[in-house]
Write a structure and sequence with these properties.
Outer membrane phospholipase (ompla), Chain C, 12-stranded antiparallel β-barrel, 12 strands
Amino acid sequence: MKLLIVTFIYLITSDAFAQPKDGISLGAGFIYKTNIREGNNLEDYGGKTISRTFPLASIKYKNLSIRGPSLKYKFYNKNIFQLSANLRYYGHQYRADGMYKRKRSLFGGFSARILYFLDLIYLKDLNNHSNGNLFTVSARKKIELSDSYSMTLRLSAEYEDKNYVNYYFGVEPGEATASRSQYAGKGTVNYTLTWGHMIKVTKDINLLINANEVIYGKSIKNSPTVRKNEEFILFIGLSFGF
């Protein structure tokens, strides 16, 4: 279940499982990803890699779309400019021996799409677990190679502020040990490159393949709870539209 939530978060941030028209989309998928954390005791997070099969679901009705633990309502949509309100259940959940559990939070905020390819997103921790703020800028290019095959390239930069980094990647004085030093990070920027593919098997069935490469910023890389700052994510899914 924990990995399922992480997978849904990946899908909603990469648009890998978007529902272009009103309706319900169901399916199944597989994810493989490298694990950047050190000593994470959460289920399925202890190894160097994580993999799992899981169900998928999305709903779209007019200006409202729901995908995994994400809700988006588009309240302004005029040609080359769109504005939306967003809710997302998110966070780099972590638990290690001698440390209190870092929990995910409900983040809320706004997003804008400009000229069909540029996305701006602001989200704030509404549960105040981290009291953090996230700012994301991304640009994408969709290439329609045929009626049944399209490819999307996306480059994203996400700024995570000091509060977010300290909560999810910091080590408080009472949690420090001989092998895990106290750590307080600063705000940092993470970069993500996405290469996505969608193949229309039939009118209502789509095959989705996404590859992500994430480079985490210096403040996350230097955390004693992190083993590496590069994360690779491969997602393969099959969706059925209704």
